[in-house]
Design goal:
Bound molecules: adenosine monophosphate
Helix content: 25-40%
Order of helices and strands: EHEHEHHEHHHHEHEHHHEEE
Radius of gyration: 19 Å
Number of helices: 12
Structural class: alpha/beta
């Protein structure tokens, strides 16, 4: 496995691969790799001969300085996980290599996609995500890029970015990977201490409760309100949002039938750790 910290070096590796007719896959990450990330790399390795994994904690997408400063870093272990999962190149640039000393990013307006839910609760978050992914897509020049459905709204934003600016780049959405007890895997889970690890299971439980109403959409609003009241009583829990949306447009589905793109989405702080989760609604 190659490692590279500069765009020039990365480009020379990728161009050499392309000259040999290899398909290039790309998996952007912020490191602290876990099996959720590994599943993306494995998917990329099944579809592509060259698999570039970027490890870069992007300062411009953090709306909360403490969250950025406490974001877990573990490069040595990450290199092992990436290689084991099938990465052929790890690109780990310094912040100046991507931003050239200027951390100002342009605002992005994709309508509700960037203004609602994560966009509303984390002001400027998607401006930073789009800025860094645009730079990374330009640096890597991949044929396909792999993103987790764990960050469902981000995936929809990236699809729009690719459609507008990176014609021909395939965006592959990959399934959300959970811990055996149902907690969505996240690099931030290591910061869930004591009883908060158990409390965090509430998010998955709430999503399941909403999914249980998928055959009776008229009851979904009642379930959402009940969950909000319950969360308000929970020690150390701050529910930011829970709702049912179209997973492509991120417009709320207030009433009416639950269609094929209906998802329940949730974000909450548990013991000071911000967690998000989602599940596709299926009437069975
Ligand atoms: P991050 O390092 O958190 O920025 O995530 C990098 C990529 O891994 C994103 O496309 C995430 O959606 C994806 N990812 C993170 N956690 C999971 C998970 N539990 N299951 C699937 N994909 C994930």
């Amino acid at each position: 496995m190659n490692t590279s910290t500069t765009i020039d070096e990365l480009k020379s590796i990728v161009h050499a691969s392309k000259a040999k007719g290899k398909r290039v896959g790309f998996v952007p990450t912020m490191g602290a790799l876990h099996p959720g990330h590994a599943s993306l790399i494995e998917r990329a390795a099944q579809a592509c001969e060259e698999v570039v994994v970027s490890i870069f904690v992007n300062p411009t997408q953090f709306n909360n300085r403490k969250d950025f400063e406490t974001y877990p870093l573990m490069m040595d272990k990450d290199l092992e996980v990436a290689q084991e999962a099938g990465a052929t190149v790890v690109f780990a640039p310094h912040v100046d290599e991507l931003y050239g000393g200027d951390l100002a990013v342009a605002p992005v307006d994709y309508g509700p996609l960037t203004s609602s839910y994560e966009g509303q609760k984390r002001k400027g978050h998607f401006d930073g995500v789009v800025a860094v992914v645009r730079k990374l897509f330009s640096a890597v020049e991949a044929d396909a890029a792999f993103f987790g459905e764990k960050d469902l709204q981000q995936l929809a934003v990236i699809r729009k970015l690719a459609e507008d600016e990176f014609i021909g780049l395939e965006i592959a959405g990959c399934p959300l990977i959970r811990e055996p007890d149902g907690l969505a895997m996240s690099s931030r889970n290591v910061r869930l201490v004591g009883e908060f690890r158990q409390t965090a299971l509430a998010l998955h439980g709430w999503l399941n409760r909403i999914n249980n109403q998928a055959c009776k959409p008229s009851d979904i609003q009642t379930a959402l309100r009940a969950i909000e009241s319950e969360a308000a009583e929970m020690e150390g829990v701050e529910l930011e949002y829970i709702d049912v949306v179209n997973g492509l447009s991120f417009e709320p589905l207030r009433d009416g039938p639950v269609g094929p793109d209906a998802f329940a989405i949730v974000a909450a702080q548990v013991g000071g750790v911000r967690l998000i989760d989602n599940c596709a609604l299926a009437c069975s």
